[in-house]
Structure prediction request, 335 residues.
Amino acid sequence: MANNTSIDISKAYDEYSDLLYRLALSHLGNREDAMDAVQDVFVKYVSLKRDFSDSEHKKAWFIRVTINRCVDLFRKRNVRAYTPLDETDEIPDNSENFLASSVKSMLDSLPEKFKTVIILHYLEGFSVEEISNVLEISVSAVKMRLARARDFVKANYPKESFYDE
Amino acid sequence: MMNKLDIEAYRQIKAPAELKEAVMRATSKTEKKKFVFNIRTISSIAACFVFLMVGIVFAVNQNARIDFSVESLPKTSAYAEADARSMDEILGIINLKSGSKIKIDSISEGFYLIDEVGEKQAIKSGFVSEREIKLGWIVSDRDGYIKVNGKEYKVVYSEPENEIEIIEIK
Prediction:
């Protein structure tokens, strides 16, 4: 049974870890907290042993729990401040460019509920329906949040625009 | 700001290699804790069940148990000539108390039921009473026997000591 579980965790990890790490990184702004958040999510996954109706349900659960965990960590204000890699001894990874980018600065300026829909829609490429499913809010609520987020960006970053696939 | 290149750069971000190791280690610890927790939970439930059963058995036994007490002893020697004394003088009185009903399954000769006003009444097998009864026993050279609530007792009178003893047989 323990073997099956570790196989299941490994499989789920391979499937969702990149997505969850990106979400955590874009919410928290540093790799250590992002790694902690993702680790917490998988521990929760093992602890709860939920039954999922399908892979979409499972994926939505992982995303929602990751976002909630990031929000919790952020509220507790125990997230580490972003430190450029050249000031640390850490192993560099491909997140460095993103963390130093103007996109990350813009995301940081957004209120939490706008940030989440912007990340999921414009960066992860989720449809409005998929976001509605993940966040367990109505489609119209997602559309409303996206519109308000765009308004917020336009007001604060007048020269910028969103690339929509 | 959020152009195609930004999006591509974002999507190329991969979880660090060391994260998988950390996740597998953390989840493995959680699994072990859950296993230990489950064992502890099952053990605790089993222990509670055993205690509960012991408690129930004890409570049932306590309820069914009969407490005997000798209220009064014969006033004169039981083995003296019968016509030389009144019956009251050779009558021992025994109280029976229980947490539940008292059922006399069988009883030997020489026993009477003493009612609320102290009068002697005949008693026979199958008599049932709530919680407390008072029996009068005409002491003789024979031991008395009472089977009550499924248990059998011998009632013994010791002459020199002027004592009544109730002994559980089985």
User: Anything to note?
Assistant: Helices of chain B lie at 4-11, 17-64. The first helix of chain B runs from residue 4 to 11.
